[in-house]
Amino acid sequence: MDYTQFKQIIDNSRDILMGKLPSPIAQVDAISYALIYKFMSDTDDDSAALGGKRTYFSGEYEKYSWHNLMSPTTTGADRVILYRNALENMSRNPNIPPLFREIFNGATLGFTDSNTLNLFLREIDKIKQSSGDSIGDVYEYLLSTMGSQDKLGQFRTPRHIIDMMVELIDPDKSDKILDPACGTAGFLISAYSWIKKKHIEKERLNSEDIEKIHRNFYGFDIEPNMARIARVNLFLHGFKSPHIIEHDTLSSEDYWDDRYDVILANPPFMTPKGGITPHKKFGITSKRAELLFVDYIASHLKPNGRAAVIVPDGVLFRSSSAHKALRKEIVENKKLQAVISMPSGVFKPYAGVSTAILVFTNSSNERTDKVWFYDMKIDGYSLDDKRSKLKTSDVPDILARFKNLDGEKDRKRNEQSFFVDKDEIVKNGYDLTINKYKEVEYEKVEYPPTSEIIAEIKKLDREASESLTELEKLLNETNPDL
Questions:
Q1: Burial class for 384, CB neighbours closer than 10 Å (0-12, 13-18, 19+)
Q2: In this protein, which residues make up the domain named DNA methylase adenine-specific (predicted)?
């Protein structure tokens, strides 16, 4: 089964569920549970076909098997009861891996309409989950329908922006990789795809080598639903035991001593009322989530580690002591390589916030000497709510120029990209907004002498008066009574 066929099943499933589960995240949950359920059934079938035993649906859980669920002798009402009980009890099934028990923890059926369930399960029944990456790619497509995660400034990062950031950082197969606010694991999936393209497909790595790569991927998220979806996403991309942890990155000291070669993130932009209550290990004093996350990322890189993080524009210029201290830390104690300004429509239709990408390293022997700025104007999609695909994009240019920064040294400040020396940034209070340094050229407009302008006005006035006189004459001739 190819991507197009999978996508059609997902689209049909969402259409079926829409009437009973209008929330996109509820639809994702329902489809996630069904996909894993069907996967377990397919695995049992494969085992039995080879002369082995059924594992997942055995013992007291045999009654919940997919075959019993889909049996023609099972009535619609009985199917609702059977499936609901299966979802609610599956987290206690001792025959399934811990990952699956975590995924099904708290699972339930969000509706009781038997016709809706029948139609939905028939769609899922079409899937045979032995098609490699196709199902994982379609799951990514499903997650793209969620858009806005919640009201805390979390918005799903567009895939092409994720892929660009991953290529800028260039993760390798030995890198330990983290997303400290992983959401649905989009950055981790993209980084894994990049590494696969570089190594797995070319070097024909065996399953043990691939498992070692899998063990290098880590994701934290405070929201249980997001952590569950991230686990499903990674599992469907081949990860047997994904390291996705339900964890409050900012308030909990757990895992604080861990360090990483690569950190990729689009952390929450907004702070709940009352602020965050961070622990005392941060290098700055603040209750703002966006500042604390960047500080966390900067302090958790291994020597020579690399990071790319999306930040709201306020991080670049605001003058509070915490904002300035954070920028100073990155400029003085890290190697800030690039500030890529993005247009405000990148996160539409969910938000119009202006953002930028910071790219920096924890270089052992280098610190910031100059910073490369790029003013992205077009990301390949229209900047309105429709976000229609365009023929042009700055993304290829950004990647090409970043990979050849030596060629950028002579660029002028009125061009789309240019370097700024560290000393100038320091003098400007570590301001990192591109408009602080960009030179705007104003085209000189030549106006005629004042006497000519007055003469032209008099001429126009005279012509208007003559036209009015001619109109009055015409009206008198056609209607003398006026």
A1: exposed
A2: 131-443
